[in-house]
Amino acid sequence: MPTIVQLAAAQLDAYNRADLDAFVECYHPEVVVFDGQTQLLAGREAFRDRYQSLFKSAGFGADVHQRMSLGRHCIDAECWWRLDGESGVRRTGHVLVRYRERDGFIDLVQFLSEQDET
């Protein structure tokens, strides 16, 4: 069974290759995604739907500058970038991403940014 660090690395690799199937396969069928404390989605199909248009657009990626793990938990400090499809302008940002493993998949994702108060 893969560790949370292996899962975090595998999903990042698939993300950067724009391989939607390999990306989604890293996530549990009952995955839950939060932005701060707000739930964004639940379930692998909703997860796929959320990322499908991004993966079709190309022009995106992320790098992990620091990764910490403890048991089933992993936190990545990421720098992400995206190209605006209309203007071609490159946008960048930083985010902490928390992952949790269950049954060999990532079952929880939480994005934390500077704007989060809690």
Write up this protein:
With 118 residues, the chain is an alpha+beta fold. The protein is built from three helices and six strands, in the order ααββαββββ. The chain has one domain (4-112): Nuclear Transport Factor 2, Chain: A. Helices cover 28% and strands 48% of the residues. A six-stranded mixed beta sheet has the order 2-1-6-5-4-3. The longest helix has 14 residues, at 44-57. 16% of the residues are buried.
- Rg on CA atoms, Å: 14 Å
In the CATH scheme, the class would be Alpha Beta
The H-and-E topology, N to C, reads as HHEEHEEEE
Q: Could you say which structural class the secondary elements and strand pairing correspond to?
A: alpha+beta
Approximate shape: globular
Mean pLDDT: 95
> What is the count of helical runs?
3
Identify the CATH architecture. Roll
According to DSSP, the number of beta strands is 6
Number of domains: 1
Beta-strand fraction estimate: over 45%
Strand order of the largest sheet: 2-1-6-5-4-3
